[in-house]
Amino acid sequence: MREPSKHMSVAVSAAGLWTSPEAVRPLDAPALTAPAGLREWAAAQGPDERRQLWGRLETQVLLGEQVLVHETRDGWARVTAPAQPSRKDPRGYPGWIPLAQLAAPAEPAPARVVVTEQVTDLLDAPGGRVLADDISFATVLPLRGRRDGHAEIGLPGGGTGWLSDKHTATYAPGGPLPTAEQLITAGRLFLGLMYLAGGAHGLTLDCSGLTHLIYRRFGHTLPRDADDQALVGEHVEVADLAPGDLPVFQNDETGDVYHVGICTGPQQQTLHVSQPDWACLDGTLTEIRRRHLVSGRRLRTT
């Protein structure tokens, strides 16, 4: 059913943005529910299952993130996600989300908080019962107040919940770019995490999902995909890459930009979520990665 476009927000820890409702597999069922069972979904997938997500899962949209709904069909919504810029659509990343994972946006507030841990729990009161687990790093939510070491936040659909002050910071959009130390420290939260195609959540990341979320945590919007990220910031030659720069990797046969990371040391040492290694690593690049490293982008303060 086609209808006027309207704003809604993700009401689960993260909703997958799928290429179509038909793209989901039976094993994706835990990721389609409300609340979403992302930990169960990720644990059930090895490399073969995660490789199958190419052409199925485009990205993930975090709790509270707004989407523009263009059409609904059979319990699904065709949306664009404005906070994830993409050349695929000027309105934001396009795809399909289960309607059950969407709700009316939370009431705006003068201040917002951003999650600074890999994942955290949403509680019904300070020190209370868990309303939702695995709220992701870089999730941004409106702040209603503070009490007993916790922030009360507004939720999509009109509810409220509480997040530990230890796991959040005040969200400051459009402020200074992060420093190299901030970028690297944030990236190292995810060392050892297994690569997941289309992942943009603290438990499920791909290469550009990592860099996109890190910049969001510090109040800046980075395009979602590696090829778009390779067009922002200041160009840096390979020989001039320094900690905090974003190394850009290009397939030498097709010419396509396909990978991005964060430089952490000399000789292009890189922190990245690597599909061939199926892990988030920080270290020396492989021979093929060195061959594909063509440039870098600088979006940081000194």
Strand content: 35-45%
Distance between the termini: 51 Å
How many β-strands, per DSSP? Answer: 23
CATH class call of the largest domain: Alpha Beta
Task: Specify the number of helices.
Answer: 6
CATH topology of the largest domain: endopeptidase fold (from Nostoc punctiforme)
**Radius of gyration from the alpha-carbon trace, in angstroms:** 19 Å
How many structural domains can be distinguished in the coordinates?
3
Physical arrangement of strands within the biggest beta sheet: 6-5-4-1-7
Mean pLDDT across the residues is: 96
Sequence stretches where pLDDT stays below 50 over 5 or more residues: none
Strand count, sense and barrel status of the largest sheet are: 5 strands, antiparallel
The ordered string of helix (H) and strand (E) elements is EEHHEEEEEEEEEEEEHEEHHEEEEEEHE
CATH superfamily of the largest domain: endopeptidase domain like (from Nostoc punctiforme)
SS class: mainly beta
Shape: globular
Oligomer: single chain
CATH architecture of the largest domain: Alpha-Beta Complex
